[in-house]
Design a protein that fits this description.
Blueprint (H helix, E strand, L loop, with lengths): L2 E7 L13 E2 L2 E2 H10 L6 E6 L2 H9 L4 E3 L11 H12 L5 E5 L3 E2 L3 H14 L3 E5 L5 E8 H6 L9 E3 L3 E2 L7
Parallel strand pairs: 1-4, 1-6, 4-5, 8-10
Antiparallel strand pairs: 2-3, 6-9, 7-11, 8-9
Helix pairs in contact: 1-4
């Protein structure tokens, strides 16, 4: 099974300007999630889809390929599913599965990524999402290729993993 790790990160954020570039332990917030994908034994390739020149350079300096997000995939209310689908088809490789971590999440690690993949492989789930112990989404999404090819949006939470990650929307949430 060939698996793509994909982070969709845009330059701007209305609620917390510069959020995705906010530095945590010497690296931008989004990079910690890229690193979790890079360190996974299951992920074959990792890409970052972005509209930011800074993020493009940051990734390319670390040998992580990028997909350029145009204006139609960088608007504030653009559904993540549309961005993942755009990036998947822009890469021009076939993958059986895509694992993404929202760039505005903190606290995820390679073990979380591995659990997502293992759940999909062992159960045949076409979609997996991550949640915290209180039922709030925490930003990891696993999708089988067929979901990207045939569905117009994510239909249901067919599988879930519990993580200690959390989404950040405002600066005071750090």
């Amino acid at each position: 099974m060939k698996i793509l790790g994909l982070i969709a990160v845009k330059q701007n954020s209305n609620r917390f300007p510069g959020k995705n570039l906010h530095e945590i332990d010497g690296a931008p917030m989004f990079w910690h999630n890229v690193q979790a994908l890079l360190d996974s034994d299951y992920i074959d390739d990792v890409y970052v889809a972005t509209d930011s020149d800074f993020i493009k350079k940051y990734c390319l300096d670390r040998d992580v390929p990028i997909v350029c997000r145009g204006p139609n995939t960088s608007i504030d209310e653009q559904p993540i599913f549309d961005i993942l689908k755009f990036a998947y088809f822009a890469i021009h490789n076939d993958y059986d599965m895509v694992v993404t971590i929202l760039p505005n999440t903190v606290g995820h690690n390679t073990g979380d990524v591995n659990r997502c993949v293992k759940l999909m492989q062992s159960t045949g789930c076409r979609e997996v999402r991550s949640f915290d112990k209180d039922g709030r989404e925490t930003g990891i999404i696993g999708l089988h290729r067929e979901v990207l090819l045939w569905q117009y949006n994510i239909s249901a939470y067919l599988g879930c993993i519990i993580t200690s990650g959390r989404e950040i929307h405002y600066k005071h949430e750090f």
